[in-house]
Write a structure and sequence with these properties.
four-stranded antiparallel β-sheet, alpha+beta
């Protein structure tokens, strides 16, 4: 047996992430992939797994410590002759190996992207709210962080003074009441609680973890961003024929070619021509931060709810590469193998409901992004060609945007350009 130091694996662009739970003690025996500690970033709670079987000999961190990739967290008497190298090469915090296409693309961005990242301090992720030794579970800490509630100022009502979700809710209601009074009633009142059991039989089921995490984010985005949605439609008759040809060949090789790959490529072309859509407001709200990289979030429907993995450097990939990566990423999300790196760094998002149906909808902007494209099911419609009506496959496009950054005329030009690109396959290969 040999003693090794277990270190924090690759957790994406996050650094100085607080340790909120230590799940083992000296003398504990662990198996490969057993969770050792829990970290909490401003986007996700993640567990660091053991790289090998062994016995914990020493804990090197404490609750509240801030850690990053490569920081040693404990010493382990490893079984089977494991070495220190094996600890450093442990998998990401989800315990899953990253998708090959995603790994190769995100780890080796173009030189221009690296330069932009190093030259722009505004891209640094803000430090999360510190709760110190507040007695609260990871889920309660995450909710409090999402809602901006300081757990250090809350007295817990749970067992041994543990802070519960109800305590956080009461703190929010109290703050809301104070704000409403200070603003002359301008605060947003809570919807009054009702006892639905008075009217019939009920059943209460907890929200999934994903919905608990995404709910406050969506609520915050909806309240802070003046949303406007512009709709248009595009003729994808020829594009759909080409897609089906590619898909027929792809099926034999174990992947699928969907419309989403073409939407990603078309989005990059539009973002380059209309850079305001690939920007974010700075914290002072008095300037725009223009991003020179193209990382596009794609809403994926999972059993627990929607999650938005980010496809990195879309501008550097072709339709086939994107199709393979989308398949791998979607499977990873549905299996719950999500990591902070998978959902970070997006500059624009796409939400596709084409496989389900609908005519139009208003997607919520994924702040701090300033725009999102939504598409629904395409349908065959009669289109006048100047001489007669002919059947054409038409796809609705719905672009929601932050009206502080983008005005209606710019949104209309962006959406029309998107329609033009999708209407001509040649535009996607130029």
């Amino acid at each position: 047996m040999s003693q090794i130091e277990v270190k924090i694996p690759d957790i994406g662009d996050f650094s100085d992430v607080p340790v909120i739970e230590i799940l083992v003690s000296p003398g504990d025996t662990v198996a490969p992939e057993d969770p050792l500690i829990t970290l909490e970033s401003d986007k996700a709670t993640m567990e660091v797994p053991s790289p090998t079987a062994g016995t914990v000999t020493e804990i090197l961190v404490s609750i509240g410590d801030k850690v990053g990739e490569g920081v040693a967290i404990l010493k382990l008497e490893a079984e089977g002759g494991a070495t220190s190298d094996s600890a450093e090469k442990q998998p990401d915090s989800s315990g899953a190996a990253p998708a090959p296409a995603a790994a190769s693309s995100s780890s080796s961005p173009p030189a221009s992207t690296q330069s932009a990242a190093s030259d722009s301090p505004s891209r640094a992720i803000p430090a999360p709210i510190e709760f110190g030794d507040a007695h609260a579970s990871p889920s309660v800490r995450m909710i409090a962080r999402e809602l901006g509630v300081d757990l250090k100022k809350i007295t817990g009502s749970g067992e041994k003074g543990r802070i519960t979700k109800e305590d956080v809710k009461r703190a929010i209601e109290g703050a809301g009441a104070g704000a409403a009074g200070a603003q002359g009633g301008a605060g947003i009142p809570e919807i009054p609680a009702q006892d639905f059991s008075k009217f019939g039989q009920i059943e209460e089921k907890p929200l999934s973890r994903l919905k608990k995490l995404s709910g406050p984010h969506l609520h915050r985005a909806w309240l802070n961003i003046p949303h406007v949605t512009h709709t248009d439609e595009t003729d994808i008759t020829e594009l759909d024929k080409y897609r089906k040809e590619l898909d027929a060949s792809a099926k034999e090789k174990g992947y699928r070619v969907t419309l989403l790959s073409f939407l990603l490529k078309a989005a990059v072309t539009c973002l380059k021509e209309f850079p305001e859509f690939n920007a974010s407001l700075n914290p002072a709200k008095d300037a725009l931060i223009y991003k020179k990289y193209y990382h596009i979030g794609v809403a994926v429907d999972t059993p627990d709810g929607l999650v938005v993995p980010v496809i990195k450097d879309v501008n550097a990939k072709g339709i086939i590469d994107l199709s393979k990566e989308l398949g791998e990423v979607s499977a990873k999300m549905r299996d719950g193998k999500i990591t902070p790196a998978d959902i970070s760094g997006g500059t624009f998002s796409i939400s596709s409901l084409g496989g389900i149906g609908g005519t139009h909808f208003t997607p919520v902007v994924n702040a701090p992004e300033v725009a999102i494209l939504g598409v629904v099911r395409s349908s065959m419609k009669p289109v006048w060609n100047g001489e007669e009506f002919v059947p054409r496959m038409m796809l609705p496009l719905c672009v929601s945007y932050d009206h502080r950054v983008i005005d209606g005329a710019l949104a209309a030009r962006f959406t029309r350009r998107m329609a033009t690109i999708l209407g001509d396959v040649r535009e996607l290969v130029l």
